């Protein structure tokens, strides 16, 4: 379910998992996972900037305020990662300059690009069902990074994507596999 905002949620541990609860309603569950995924060669920062200039919003208007891909956020308020299609490749990309340096922020940085990678004209919205990520290292303060997303297949309404974060020298910093769900 969408995480409610503006109120306290409960975090509870259960066996190998961590639960995020709104009262008794399960909002999210975290479990350990191995992420073995081959990420594509990254586009150059210049190619990522050109792709980002092709950014076209997806989903409802409320998504424009998203912490990761929120186009209506001001500089310094959220990440404003605006992925667009990379010419000649089945890939979306955007540049990102790292200023908030934590694992949760890196997870946010590699979140929404998966939705843009699986988005198609007329398909409608998709919501994140699952995400497993591996963070190799956090970016350095002010490091110019490239975020990418690519489709990995689909099974009915389940859309598979991969996302990655690369550092200035093209070093893989983080990679994720995702399942997006296209609502009925």
Observed structural traits:
about 180 residues; Thiol Ester Dehydrase, Chain A; 9 strands
Number of helices: 3
What is the CATH topology of the largest domain?
Thiol Ester Dehydrase, Chain A
Oligomer: single chain
- Record field, number of beta strands: 9
The general outline is globular
CATH architecture label name of the largest domain: Roll
| Model regions low in confidence, pLDDT < 50 over at least 5 residues | none
Name of the CATH class of the largest domain: Alpha Beta
State the share of residues found in helices, binned by percent: 10-25%
Gyration radius, in Å? 16 Å
Q: State the separation between the terminal residues, measured CA to CA.
A: 15 Å
Order of helices and strands: EEEHEEHHEEEE
Main-sheet strand order equals 4-5-7-8-9-6
Average the pLDDT over all residues and give the rounded result. 87
- How many domain modules? 2
Alpha-beta content class: mainly beta
Identify the CATH homologous superfamily of the largest domain. Hotdog Thioesterase
The fraction of residues assigned to DSSP E strands is: 35-45%
Biggest pleated sheet: 6 strands, antiparallel
């Amino acid at each position: 379910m969408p995480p409610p905002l503006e109120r306290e949620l409960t975090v509870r541990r259960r066996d190998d998992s961590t639960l995020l609860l709104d009262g008794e309603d399960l909002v999210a569950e975290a479990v350990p996972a191995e992420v073995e995924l081959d990420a594509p060669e990254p586009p150059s920062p210049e190619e990522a900037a050109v792709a980002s200039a092709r950014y076209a919003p997806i989903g409802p208007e409320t998504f424009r305020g998203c912490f990761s891909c929120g186009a209506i956020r001001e500089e310094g308020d959220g990440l404003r990662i605006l992925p667009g299609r990379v010419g000649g490749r089945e890939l979306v990309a955007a540049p990102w300059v790292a200023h908030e340096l934590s694992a949760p922020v890196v997870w946010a940085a590699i979140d929404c690009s998966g939705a843009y990678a699986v988005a198609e004209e007329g398909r409608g919205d998709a919501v994140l069902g699952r995400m497993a990520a591996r963070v190799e290292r956090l970016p350095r303060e002010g490091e110019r990074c490239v975020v990418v997303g690519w489709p990995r297949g689909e099974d009915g309404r389940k859309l598979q994507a991969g996302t990655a974060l690369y550092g200035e020298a093209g070093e893989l910093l983080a990679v994720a596999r995702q399942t997006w769900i296209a609502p009925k």
